[in-house]
Amino acid sequence: MNNENFENTINLRQGKDKEFLLEYLKKMPIVETACARAGVGRSTFYRWRKEDKEFAKAVFEAMAEGEGLITDLSENQLISLIKDRNFQAIQLWLKHHHKKYAEKLDITANINIKEEPLTDEQKELVEKALIQAGILLNTNQQNHDTGNQQPAGRDNSGNIKTASQ
Predict the structure, then answer these.
(1) What is the dihedral of CA 150, 156, 158, 161, to 10 degrees?
(2) Are 21 and 38 in contact (CB under 8 A)?
């Protein structure tokens, strides 16, 4: 058997194994179980999923389909339990399907706000940050009309000057 035939045989077998895995994941979306049924190691499965983008997409779709099937079966069983007057089943259904019975979270807090003025150093840091963010204009340059220097981000009156002004 030459190398090309050997490669074709391996690719054919891997293709069949991948198809079996996908079909099983549609019925039971558990990788370990699907791999055991297909006779494929989990590390091989994850390697295939990593190397083969089409297979990875098909795995995602198959597992979503399988999860949908399990959800349908679970809801069917839950409804059967509700019909049998199982209180836990009734409670679970109401908690998740009716606002009135949902769990509630009550948050209470006392908030004390202390207004402390910024120090000159803090004001300078805030101004530098606002200038770097492009919110304030940097007017710490020579004013060509008067020759006066103004602090960064302030106009001649000392008011903060924004980039839009």
Answers:
(1) -90
(2) yes
Give residues with Cβ within 8 angstroms of 59, minimum separation 6. 21, 22, 25, 49
pTM: 0.54
Please answer whether residues 82 and 89 qualify as being in contact, where contact means their C-beta atoms are separated by less than 8 angstroms: yes
Partners of 162 in beta bridges: 136
Q: Residue 49 in contact with residue 66, Cβ under 8 Å? A: no
What is the greatest pairwise CA distance in the chain?
Answer: 93
Question: Do 142 and 163 contact (CB within 8 A), yes or no?
Answer: no
Grouping H, G, I as helix, E, B as strand and the rest as coil, residue 163 is coil
C-beta of residue 25 within 8 angstroms of C-beta of residue 66: yes
Residue-wise pLDDT tens for the chain (165 aa)? 577 787 888 888 898 999 999 999 999 999 999 999 999 999 999 999 999 999 999 999 999 999 999 999 999 999 999 999 999 999 999 999 888 888 888 888 888 888 888 899 998 999 899 888 888 777 654 344 445 444 455 566 555 655 555
Tokens of 51: 């190397």
Instruction: Please check whether residue 48 is in contact with residue 55, taking contact to mean a CB–CB distance below 8 angstroms.
Output: yes
* Alpha carbon distance 21, 40 (integer Å): 9
